[in-house]
Amino acid sequence: VLISPDGQHHPVAAKLIFPCTNNVAEYEACILGLQAAIEMGVAKLKVFGDSALIILQTVGEWKTKDSKLLPYHKYLENLVKEFEEVSFQYLPRSHNQFADALATLSSMLQVTDGLKVEPLKIEILPKPAYCMFVTEEPDGKPWYYDIMNYIKKQEFPEGSTQADRKYIMKMASKFFVSGEN
């Protein structure tokens, strides 16, 4: 997940359709992110990753000894040279949930070769879409009519059962009348 300085998230994911170890998959993900940042023209980059192996190998604290990882590590080092400034920092998986969710989603997708899934748009909605919509019943009265009538006149609708009355009283305890129509 690439995050711009203004907080804009740019999800990037790939589905690996070749057998590989989890460490190879982590390198593939890191390289994919670096390539996306290069394509976007990013000059200064902070990389946060939940693979201690890759982060520590990239910053030089650990040596890359696995022969399968050496080509990945060398390629990653070449990509790093494309940036004016780049830093790598370990981030626990629990703090990297968005990237983890993307990895899970891409691994679960059943797609054919060559199919490109466009960027994922996720909106944060603070309230239901219908929250400002007041519906009317077929009789032309709003849904809260019986509650308001009970609050104002302590009257129940004609033909209401004991359970209906109990429910109206319970609901009426949560409302008050403010202004008149």
UniProtKB/TrEMBL annotation:
<dbReference type="InterPro" id="IPR002156">
    <property type="entry name" value="RNaseH_domain"/>
</dbReference>
<protein>
    <recommendedName>
        <fullName>RNase H type-1 domain-containing protein</fullName>
    </recommendedName>
</protein>
<dbReference type="InterPro" id="IPR036397">
    <property type="entry name" value="RNaseH_sf"/>
</dbReference>
<dbReference type="Pfam" id="PF13456">
    <property type="entry name" value="RVT_3"/>
</dbReference>
<feature type="domain" description="RNase H type-1">
    <location>
        <begin position="12"/>
        <end position="104"/>
    </location>
</feature>
<dbReference type="InterPro" id="IPR012337">
    <property type="entry name" value="RNaseH-like_sf"/>
</dbReference>
